Amino acid sequence: MRALALTAALAGCAGQGIPSVPWGDAGARDVTVKDVSTTTDTAAYVVADAPRSEAAVDAASDASVDGSVDATRDATADAFADGSLDAATDVPVDAPPWFPCAPGVQRDLDALGTRVGDTTTVHGDNRAAGAMTVLPSACAVGYAGYEVAYRYVPRRTTTLRVSTNAMGTDARLDTVVFALSACLPLDGGARSLGCNDDTGDPPRDHASTFITDAAVTAGVPVFIVVAGFLHATHDIWDSQGAFELSVTEQ
User: Fold this and answer.
1) Predicted TM-score (pTM) of this structure
2) 95 versus 14: which is more confidently predicted?
3) Residue 33 · residue 47 · CB < 8 Å
4) Averaged over 185-191, what is the pLDDT?
5) Distance (Å, rounded) from C-alpha 47 to C-alpha 25?
6) Do 249 and 118 touch, CB atoms closer than 8 A?
7) Helix intervals (H) in the chain
8) d(CA 59, CA 199)
9) b/e per residue, 70-107, with b = 16+ CB within 10 A?
10) Which pLDDT band, with edges at 50, 70 and 90, does 132 fall under?
11) Facing residues of 108 across strands?
């Protein structure tokens, strides 16, 4: 059943007019999604650049708490030390048109989110993302698309509880959420830290919740990807929409 859903979904991607984001500018920018009309058609959404906050710029330039991580490159860039990384953009030279890890496309959860206690929450949207599966998940292989990647730096060495199961997630949105050790495909050097398709629990039973498989390290970035499950039809569930993502250091 889901194999048929994937085939039909991918067949329609080319005609959806999904906007892509140029990544030639590696400056310190965040991406915001602006609704420019009252329709929910994908073409009505555009990606706009917004200046990063002073805190976001500071966070991007700081090294890890123990000095073991160069935050300007992280494991993501280091994994391409063999020359397959574009020196001007820190993006793989063979990256697809939509690459959620590209400068100006990847989002900074620490800068964009709101922290209360040990939980950081952000409201996002994946309607401007490309439909192609770029960062395959470990729990919905081949069925996750419209990926949005967030960089998060843990304050403590601990496990993370990651969830989109909240009222801020569209009721019809079927999310696939996973965490990676680097913003790369699993076959490109990243390690899966956890993944979930459907929680089956209220308030959003097609949202996602998981706890990382092992403790993450304080000061070492991890990458959390919010994607939509690729459906053949939008009669029941959507692959794109607004979501509320929370990350809790347990």
Assistant:
1) 0.64
2) 95
3) yes
4) 88
5) 14
6) yes
7) 2-11, 54-61, 74-78, 109-112
8) 32
9) ebeebbbbebbeeeebbeebbbbeebeebbbbbbbbbb
10) confident
11) 151
d(CA 101, CA 111): 16
Whether pLDDT at 20 is above 70: no
Q: What is the dihedral of CA 98, 102, 107, 110, to 10 degrees?
A: 160
DSSP states of 186-221 as a string? GGGT--EEEEES----SS-TTS-EEE-SSPBPTT--
- Count of CB atoms situated within 10 Å of the CB of 200: 10
Domain parsing of the chain, residue ranges: 2-249
Give me the architecture of the 2-249 domain, per CATH: Sandwich (2.60)
Measure the CA–CA gap between 111 and 151, rounded to whole angstroms: 10
The CA distances from residue 129 to 32, 75, 149, 245, in Å, are 11, 23, 10, 16
The three-state secondary structure class of 243 is strand
Instruction: For residue 22, count CB atoms less than 10 angstroms from its CB and return exposed for 0-12, middle for 13-18, buried for 19 or more.
Output: exposed
- Amino acid found at 206: H
Amino acid at position 149, single letter? A
Under 8 Å CB-to-CB from 247, ≥6 apart: which residues? 109, 113, 119, 120, 121, 152, 160, 161, 162, 224
Amino acid at 73: R
